[in-house]
Amino acid sequence: MVSRFRLRHSSALAGGILAFALIGTPVLAQTAPEPQDPETSLDEVVVTGTRIRVQDYVAANPVTSVTAETIENSGQTNLTQFLTDIPALSSSVTLQDGADTTTPGLAGLNLLNLRGLGTDRTLVLVNGRRHISSSPGTPSVDVNSIPVALVERTEVLTGGASAVYGADGVSGVVNFILKDDFEGVDFRTQYGTSDEGGADNYFASLLLGNNFADGRGNVTLGFEYNKDEALKVSEREYTRSGNRFIFINNPDDPETFGGAQTPGIPDLILSNNVRYIDTSRGGSIYTNFATATTGSGVSFLGNGDPFVDGISAGGFTAIGGSGSPLDDFNDDLLPGLERGTLSLTGRYDITPGLRAFTELKYTQSQTQFFAQPSYVYGLFVPLDNPFIPASARADSLTPGGLGLSDGAVLLARDNFDLGTQNYDITRETYRAVVGLSGDLTDNIAFEASYVYGRADQEQTAKNVIINDRFFAASDVIVSGGQPVCRSNIDPTAVPVGDVFGQFQFPAAAFGATFTPGANSGCQPLNLFGEGLNSQTAIDWITGEYTEEATIEQHVVNAFVSGDTTGFFRLPGGPVGFVVGGEYRKESSDSRPSDIQLLADALEYPLTGVGRASRTQGEFDVAEFFTEVSVPIVKDLPFAKSVELSAAYRYSDYSTSGGADTWNVNGRWDIDDTLAFRATVARAVRAPNIVDLFQGRQQTFGTFADPCSRENLTEGENPTLRLQNCQADLATFGLTVGAGGYQNTSSESVGGFVQGNPDLSPESADTYTFGFVITPADVPGLSLSLDYYNIEISDAIQAYSSQTIVNNCYDLPRPNQFCDLIERGTVGGNPGRIVSFNQIPGNLASYETSGWDLNAQYRLDPAMFGIERDIGTFNFNLVANLLDSLTFTEVSGADPINSQNRPGSPEYTATFDVTWNWKALSANYGFSYFNAVDRQSRQGLVNNPDAYEAQYRRFPAREVHDFRVAYDVNDGLGVYAGVNNFTDEQPAPGSESYPVSALGRYFYVGATAKLGSLGSLFAWR
């Protein structure tokens, strides 16, 4: 295996890490400090959700904690992939969700999504401090950049945490607590592969830690490497060409062809051998529309053979026929990812009451995946092109209202033989934390820290078709007895280009990337057939383009915490408090490639990577925060303790002004076995840089035209819709209504998205209440049950393209929505919607509620009188009942309930049990969620027979994992496991739900642990 991984621009940071580590080397401690009596020592801890340091704390906020041991037992080398088994995080984005070619910049990122409310609303912390984003212009943190081996535990807090940590945590917080006092050597290596092959994983981590200066200081160095190989479509039987089943319109349903809805006949059926009705790999030729006998109007294949129709499925698809198989358009099922991390944590007690600490980290990752080939719908080819086959030349084009001259053919083609576009994304993350903490008095402490973060991203698109070169090379004539590019002979000859779709070629764009003429380098392309062109010709029409982005973060935080011991005490004890401030500055700069900027200036997509403008912005925020914890009573009958706590934060944003956030928490411990808790919180999410400053970017949307005759009666006010449609389409000489304008095209429409500098913060109200039980008569058992409700108002959201076009015609004129769409003529069809604009606003609202159950039980058979040593058993259960998850796109609209839809099942649970006996341990894990609907609830009401009965729901997820481990000696261990033991597969019509395409997965690994660095040289 040859690694392509490389460390760039990291020598300064690596040198700093090594220098810090070597400072303490001459005085490495050889003896550990004396252990404290566990009966008298009560460590103060900080629990996620508060900065108040307390002893023996039971959180009022519902916090789920996951240890490093639990993560290792899962066999996962990807933190997010493990955390998605926690019900609250099941909607998170992981590598196993596949390669999304519509948003390639997100490929390879692992982004946490609490409660399904969005990655932008989940605050990710490391040791309670903010972490630099990895997604330009957003706060979303790539959890892949956090080294697995360095994590001590992970805590997940539900509900608004803005009052304690600042904006973005409206759905909650995920806090990664790192090992800060590690001593010794910890090495782990693992290899995994799937049962069917592909997606091999290689992982290795090394921690080196040592105390020095008689235990006053500690330095821990970490190195981690992980490689996930891509999973190809050819490596799974159900995605190989000819085997892939997808949902298409039912040819036996009259509705497929514009007829009325027919109850009892499914609209969609599952089929293989699905093909396009027009484009093909070697070209499809339109000639005489008046005499064409095929459904699409295509008469010939590129080689001159007749084009054969399949069974039409409406729109652009058919079962069988001569068109390109949809199977051939599969991208990589899973992208390839390679990651390396170098980290250091350190602390040094300058005096008994003053400590310096630091965290340094550098991560680099590379993601690679293949996308899809380019295509043309209707390339205008004049008859003097020598490559046109004789059969097509004899039946040349009759314009049929296209507004084109005679003497040509049109070519529709999927350009597989010109190469497939692919992506290579390199990300580098730098993070540094320095700070001081200490004691001001016996009961008052302080902490001050500075966090710097930077993330660089390079996204390179390879084998990209350059449109002006492609059209020049495909416009071929004969000169001197040889085929040549027309523009080589006549530099003023501008090709027509593609007369269909969004690719009509403007004259201003011709020659944008080359100078027409004899020395242009243009090589003639023969597109009438497959595999007919030289590599030289292909190289001239393709290019490689890189987009770059840089994100920076500066955070200064300082606070004082303590209690009122020495001043006053309440009946329940001293009052705890925190007072502090924070300053944060964030900037992001996304720089499109030169050809995207040129395309934006020309208002034409010169390549498949589209048009784009630069997104550049920054903001800063100054904040004051405070917390208070009030112990009301203690050690009374039915009130072992009653405590109230509260937090408040004021934030002043340079972009959106001031915002107040707060929370109030209560905890009532009846006795040692039963406690009740509740929280009420107000949180905010300030608009991020993309929300505010995103430059104009090209996008595509597919929507139903409200003015098409079959949609006229579907609006909330059909009379008003009809009136507005008549007014707009009359300008094109069209009538509306029965027998009038119809647009059933499923072709995507080009549009634009951009930021809105006038956005305000969105706000969220959170309520939780629940109880914790630790029954005295069942030692080792603890159980908690909590209810949560989160309501987000003024949510920042861009209208969907469908909402924009509907509101233009369903609301009285004038209205803002009609300014966001444009109608024109496409492929000779007047009146079509040809463009739209999506701009975010404080428009939407979200609401979610449900119940969380957490249970742990440690079973020691000796407690039941079993004298024989058969080991101990640890049981863990985390479960969720989702009551509701609704989204309202605009005030007054009907809410969309996503409960029991993909990503939001009603019931979710994760269970595991670990058996430990002497040197042997075994773990069984089970993850489950219920079957969910393919359609929305409203969709089921309006069209209950959209799918055949057996496919109306995605099946439940039921995944079983096993792992066994054996300690060979005190330092060496080996383990092996299998995930998805029963080889569960994605549902028909899906490649990643309810399980990923990975299938059954085996792994083996080894660990080596030494108590000190000194023993590294003495270990045998």
TrEMBL record:
<keyword id="KW-0813">Transport</keyword>
<dbReference type="Pfam" id="PF00593">
    <property type="entry name" value="TonB_dep_Rec_b-barrel"/>
</dbReference>
<feature type="signal peptide">
    <location>
        <begin position="1"/>
        <end position="29"/>
    </location>
</feature>
<dbReference type="InterPro" id="IPR000531">
    <property type="entry name" value="Beta-barrel_TonB"/>
</dbReference>
<keyword id="KW-0812">Transmembrane</keyword>
<protein>
    <submittedName>
        <fullName>TonB-dependent receptor</fullName>
    </submittedName>
</protein>
<dbReference type="InterPro" id="IPR036942">
    <property type="entry name" value="Beta-barrel_TonB_sf"/>
</dbReference>
<keyword id="KW-0675">Receptor</keyword>
<dbReference type="InterPro" id="IPR012910">
    <property type="entry name" value="Plug_dom"/>
</dbReference>
<keyword id="KW-1134">Transmembrane beta strand</keyword>
<keyword id="KW-0732">Signal</keyword>
<dbReference type="InterPro" id="IPR037066">
    <property type="entry name" value="Plug_dom_sf"/>
</dbReference>
<dbReference type="GO" id="GO:0009279">
    <property type="term" value="C:cell outer membrane"/>
</dbReference>
<keyword id="KW-0998">Cell outer membrane</keyword>
<feature type="domain" description="TonB-dependent receptor-like beta-barrel">
    <location>
        <begin position="429"/>
        <end position="980"/>
    </location>
</feature>
<keyword id="KW-0472">Membrane</keyword>
<dbReference type="Pfam" id="PF07715">
    <property type="entry name" value="Plug"/>
</dbReference>
<keyword id="KW-0798">TonB box</keyword>
<comment type="similarity">
    <text>Belongs to the TonB-dependent receptor family.</text>
</comment>
<feature type="domain" description="TonB-dependent receptor plug">
    <location>
        <begin position="60"/>
        <end position="173"/>
    </location>
</feature>
<dbReference type="InterPro" id="IPR039426">
    <property type="entry name" value="TonB-dep_rcpt-like"/>
</dbReference>
